[in-house]
Amino acid sequence: MALMAALPVTAATATPPAARRVTVALWGDDSNPGTTARPFRTLERAQREARPGRPLVIDLRGGKYRLSDTLKPASSVTYEAFGYGTLRQEEIVLSGGRVITGWTQTRGGIWEAPAGGIQTRQLYVDGRRALRAPLGAGLPGEVTTTETGYVLASPVPATWSRPDDIEFAYTFPFWVDARCGVDSIRRMRGKTVITMDQPCWSLARKLYGADGEPLPAPTAIDNSPSFLTKPGAWYLDRRRDKLLYHPLPGEDVRKAEVVAPVLQTLVEGDAHTHDVAFRGLTFADATWLAPSEPAGFVSAWSNYRRPAVDGWLTVPGNVAFRGSRRITLSGNRFQRLGGQALELSRGVRDVFVEANRFTDVSDGGVVLGAVLPDRTGISRNVVLRDNRIHRTGVEYRGASGIWLVTGDDTTIEHNQVDNVPYTGILVGPPGEDGGRSHRTRILANRVFATNQVIEDGGGIYLRGKQGDGYADGALVRENVVTDAGAQNFDLGIYTDDTSEYVTVDRNVVHGYPGSIGGCADPYLRDIRYRGNFWDDRVPDGIARRAYPGTWPTGAADDCGDPQGLTFEHNRLLSPDRAAVECALIPACARIVAAAGPI
C-alpha cells in the first residue's frame, strides 16, 4: 500500500476534470451566462461552452424544443433533462415538427390550414398518428397488370382527384411491405388505365416478379383528397399548399395540437463525435421522405432500392450516430418517428443504449452495424440493455424491432420487444450480402407478439456466419420468446440460411408455429441447442424430422439438410399448456422471471 501511494500520478491515472454545467430553458436568453437562474435559450449557444478535454453537462429545463435543423452534438457533452434520475425530472421533447394553425372549415366536415411549404408523410393530432387519407380497399373489380401499371374495367379510379399524389401499398406474406406512387389515371376505350411512377414500377416488377409472376394488385391505396371520408384522416395538398384534416367525432382541430414532422434527422453524430450522452429526453416528430420520390419504397426487410445504387440502401435513423465513439443513450423516449428510430452505423464503437423506450415508429427501432450501401464499418462494443421496443414498423411492416446487420462484441440484453409486424430481434445481413459478426450475445430478452403482419420471420432471427467457431460465435441464452401473430411460418428462434456457429442455450419458446429451425440454402450448420424449454411445434405443410425443430427440405422449399446440429438436455412443453407447465418447472420459471424489462 505504501509503495502504491508513493507512485506519481500520471495522465492515465489522474482524476478527470469535473464537468461544468450550463442550463438551457425556453424562457432563457442566449446573452445570459447559462446558469440555472439565468439560462441560455438554445442548445446551439450552450454547445459553444464545450472545451476539449473538459466535460460539459447541458441541463434542459422542461418543454418542447422545436428544432429548425438537425442537432449535431458537440463532443464531451452530456445533454440531460433537468433533475434527471430524481422525482423532479422535467419532461423534455426535442421535436422536428411544425405546429399547424389557422384552421378553417370547408365542405363535408373537412378542415384546412396553410401548410407553409412543408413536405411530410406523417401528421400527429394531440400526439396521435393520423391516417394519411386511406381508401380502405384495393382496386375495384378485375385488374390486369401491364408493363406500365394496371388496366381495369371499373371507372371509379378515374374519379379520384390528385391521382399523381396517390400511393399503392403492397404487403406480401414474406418480408415485404412496398410502396409505389401513381403517375396518372385516365379512361381509354372503355377501360381505366393506371400508369405507375418510374423507376419504382420497374424496380418492383424486377424484384417481386422475378419468377415470371406479374406484380399483383395493391393491398392498400392512400393519399388522395377523394379518400378523406374517414374521421382522423389527413391529406397534404401540395398544389394549394394546404393541409386537409377530417376530425374525429367531437374533436375541435382549432384546439388540438396538430404537428407535421418536417426534419428527417433530429440528431446526427459523425466520426468526429465522441464522448456524448443523452439522458432523459424525448426524440419526436421526424419524417422520412424517400418513399415519396419517383423510385418509391421497393423494399425487403428495412432496405429499399434505388436505380443508381448497386444493391440496397437501409432506412436511415431519425437519430443517427455514424462512426461515433463512446456514446450513451439512457432513459430516453423515441416516438412519433417516420424512419428508423435509432441508427448506429459506419463503425460506431463503445455505445451504450439503456432503459430507452421506442414506440410509434414507421420503420424499425434500432439498426446497427454495416448498413447498406456502405457494407463497411463494423460496429464494435455496442450494448442494448433494458430497453422496451413496441409498436414499431407501423408504416413499413418489413421492419424489425432490433436489427444487427454485422458487428463485433454486441450485447442485446434484458430488452422487451413486442407488438411488431415482422421480426423482434434480427441478426445478420440481408440477401446475398456478406459480412460476419463475432461474439454477439442475445441474453434474457422478452420477445412476444411478433409477426403481426408479415411472416417468415420470428422472435429472434439469425442468418449468416456468426463467428469462426463456437467460442466467438453467437450466444442466444435465457430469452423468453412467446406468442407470435396469426401467421403460418414463423419460428421462435430462427437460424436461417447460412447460419453458422450459434449456441441456443436455456431459452423458453412457445406459441409460435415453429419453435426453432431454419432453411439450409445453400447451407446451415453448427447450431447447438442446450437446456431449452419449448413446445416444438412445426408449421403446417412442413414434415417433422427425427430431431426437434422446423427444417424444410426438398426442391419446393429450396432447402437442403442442416449439418452439425446438436441437442442436449432440452425439455418439451405441451403446446396447449406450455406457459402453465413452464411455471411449474423451477428452472423454466426462473428464466421467465429474469427476462425483462416487464
Automatic annotation (TrEMBL):
Residues 319-427 form the Right handed beta helix domain. It comes from Kribbella voronezhensis. Keywords: Lyase. This is Parallel beta helix pectate lyase-like protein. One of its GO terms (molecular function) is lyase activity.
